[in-house]
UniProtKB/TrEMBL annotation:
Entry-linked InterPro entries: AbrB_C (IPR040678), B_subtilis_Trans_State_Reg (IPR052731), SpoVT-AbrB_dom (IPR007159), SpoVT-AbrB_sf (IPR037914)
NCBIfam families: lp_hng_hel_AbrB
Domain of life: Bacteria
Phylogenetic placement of the source organism: Bacteria, Bacillati, Bacillota, Bacilli, Bacillales
Residue intervals of the SpoVT-AbrB domain: 5-50
UniProt xrefs under Pfam families: AbrB_C, MazE_antitoxin
Protein name as catalogued: AbrB family transcriptional regulator
MF terms (GO), sorted A to Z: DNA binding
Key words, A-Z: DNA-binding, Plasmid
Length: 94
């Protein structure tokens, strides 16, 4: 386990603040759900990835499709990804 050197106190309501640098590094945005695990005397926080959630938007809809192992996309997410891929291909050809 890697130490970050960051220490936070638990407030009266049992909350702690996850430092901005760690959230940025782990891709955790405001409002993102976190899973909480216990392992012996440790509490482990992990960004929650709902089964069937779009990898781009995080949406869970009946229209989501699995495109590859571990890659689920909503129609909106697929459109955003395709747009980004086309944009990158255009940028590289210039």
């Amino acid at each position: 386990m890697k130490s970050t050197g960051v220490v936070r106190k638990v407030d009266q309501l049992g909350r702690i603040v996850v430092p901005k640098e760690l959230r940025r590094t782990l891709g955790i945005e405001n409002g993102d759900p976190l899973e909480i695990f216990m392992e012996e005397n440790r509490i482990i926080l992990k960004k929650y990835n709902a089964q069937g959630a779009c990898a781009v938007t995080g949406e869970i809809t009946n229209e989501n499709k699995d495109y590859a192992p571990g890659l689920t996309l909503s129609p909106k997410g697929a459109a955003l990804l395709l747009e980004q891929l086309k944009s990158n291909a255009t940028d590289e050809s210039h």
